[in-house]
């Protein structure tokens, strides 16, 4: 996560301690009407998502496929929990990335270093054998992705002045880069996995991240100085304390693993509890800080209902990588003119729709300007539409092995995409606008904690999915999401009052 300087914060919420100085990005329109520096962030995030989603597209089947089929032969319920825990850990790691950016290195340096760690993780998955490669690779990718993801998002926020009307459109364009990578990754890794093996697919993910790293290294110096500023430098006298805390934390995790407290079959539950505790602590620290104004405190409180609805949304949305993968393997007819489509290609359907529709949504929000729906309304609509997507599975229950037509999943994933575009790009944008000046990067981390919690819950929920009895699963989760959306819609006025002018 990136951080703007605290003396002259870039794009702080109205009411922060000082107004931002105009930057070159304010008048730069060379990248599709956006600042040219956005192109560098667009590129590195695109290739990072190529590697991330390319690997994730084959990760679950790698774990539960038999050894004879090139997999690890892990129980499917355990494997889905691991995928959910890993996905949650990626977003949980944004806390560490935010802290390093705010206190030690600055956002841009954390972003660059994290890209190197990600590449190392994919290499480990590609070359190290069996469970060893899985463990080492997932830990490195989770840590690196956590550091890169939130810092890239926050750096995008530094490219715009507070009231720049291009801000939401810029985030939507950035989101397009994410989904270009997300589309291409599973296509390439799926082809390689189907034809030459899983490890070749993981190797392609490593190559993709290497390309992104090289591309970004040429453009990183053109980013604004705000992206490199250490907002709240850690005093040298306290460095030893934090190093000790870090070593103690690693030792504690090792002990819990060795004593069997943390196991593969309860990993998703552990990540849920840790993430929930971290989110509560983060809200308490920020709201209780004496370094923020009353207006900033109110805005953080106003973020709470958005946080809760976001958790519900991602709990369903991230099941693309758990339940939908199993569904694609067992329930979906993937045959096209006698050729069977790789399972991972289903994960490329959603990014296609995002690529098509993100520009449409960006244009709509830009054209509507101040008349566009507020963030709470967008969140409520996104949650309800996501609930409808789950209910859309119901007509195809009971159709038997590979009985669901491919076009049905295409239609359902179109609904997924519409829901996503109501929540995700506006969510990134409103978080940076609600953030107190002293906690700019860490508020972005808090946003990603909601994604972490939802992702881990998605993995935990997947253990209850039974391809032979789908009606209770899809109907209960779909109704819960709709109820969450309706509750937020009913509370729009008080939430807007707490947000103090931020829409």
TrEMBL record:
- Bilayer-crossing residues are 50-67, 79-101, 173-192, 198-218, 239-262, 268-288, 300-317, 349-368, 380-398, 404-423, 444-465, 471-492
Q: Where in the cell is it found?
A: Cell membrane; Membrane
Q: Name one GO biological process term.
A: oligopeptide transport
What membrane topology is annotated for this entry? Multi-pass membrane protein
Provide this UniProt record's keywords sorted from A to Z.
Answer: Cell membrane, Membrane, Transmembrane, Transmembrane helix, Transport
List, alphabetically, the Gene3D superfamilies matched: MFS general substrate transporter like domains
Record-linked SUPFAM superfamilies: MFS general substrate transporter
Q: Which GO terms describe its molecular function?
A: peptide transmembrane transporter activity
Region labeled Disordered — which residues? 1-26
Q: Chief subcellular site?
A: membrane
Boundaries of each Major facilitator superfamily (MFS) profile domain copy?
40-493
> What PROSITE patterns does this protein map onto?
MFS (PS50850), PTR2_2 (PS01023)
Q: Which domain of life is it from?
A: Bacteria
Cross-referenced InterPro entries: Dipep/tripep_permease, MFS_dom, MFS_trans_sf, MFS_Transporters, POT_fam, PTR2_symporter_CS
Cellular component annotations (GO), alphabetically ordered = plasma membrane
The record's similarity note reads: Belongs to the major facilitator superfamily. Proton-dependent oligopeptide transporter (POT/PTR) (TC 2.A.17) family.
Under what name is this protein listed?
Answer: POT family proton-dependent oligopeptide transporter
This chain's source organism reads Microbacterium telephonicum
